[in-house]
Specification:
alpha+beta; three-stranded antiparallel beta sheet; 4 helices; four-stranded antiparallel beta sheet
Length: 148
């Protein structure tokens, strides 16, 4: 899907920040827990650091670049995936409900995530800008009236 919208740049920055923080916390916790086994601790921390570098500098940028969505008059399209591309089409008349949410870090960056539930399952779209999430919410929810 080449004419769809992609995620905002803030989403990529937020993913990177969360990955760095989680890696630092996990490495600190492992360093404390494995303080008696010096070589095991070194190998574990080295391996965890390698996984973090691959995750932060390879996987997350590819996931960011390969996530697109499009809101059409009769359906919502989502295309995502790094290794395998997955395209999901949800017709508007099949949407059960739409839910938006944000965690404290997302709120700081003025980003929201959205969950679209339909008869066959649900789709999550993370880290949209607040106006874009509201636009999708109002477009897909028949019970909402868009504010003036």
């Amino acid at each position: 899907m080449k004419d769809g919208r992609s995620l905002p740049k803030k989403a990529f920055v937020l993913w990177e920040a969360v990955a760095f923080i989680a890696t630092g916390v996990l490495e600190g916790l492992l360093a404390v827990l494995l303080h008696r086994w010096f070589f095991l601790r070194l190998w574990t921390l080295w391996l965890l650091g390698l996984v973090a570098v691959i995750l932060v500098f390879w996987y997350l940028p590819l996931r960011y670049l390969n996530t697109e969505y499009k809101l059409e008059s009769h359906s919502f399209w989502l295309c995502k995936g790094v290794f395998w591309q997955k395209t999901v089409c949800i017709p508007r008349n099949r949407v059960s409900y739409v839910n938006t949410f944000s965690d404290p870090l997302s709120r700081l960056c003025k980003l929201r995530s959205i969950r679209i539930s339909a008869a066959g399952g649900s789709v999550w779209l993370f880290f949209l800008s607040e106006p874009e999430a509201q636009r999708i919410l109002y477009a897909l929810s028949p019970s909402f009236e868009e504010p003036l």
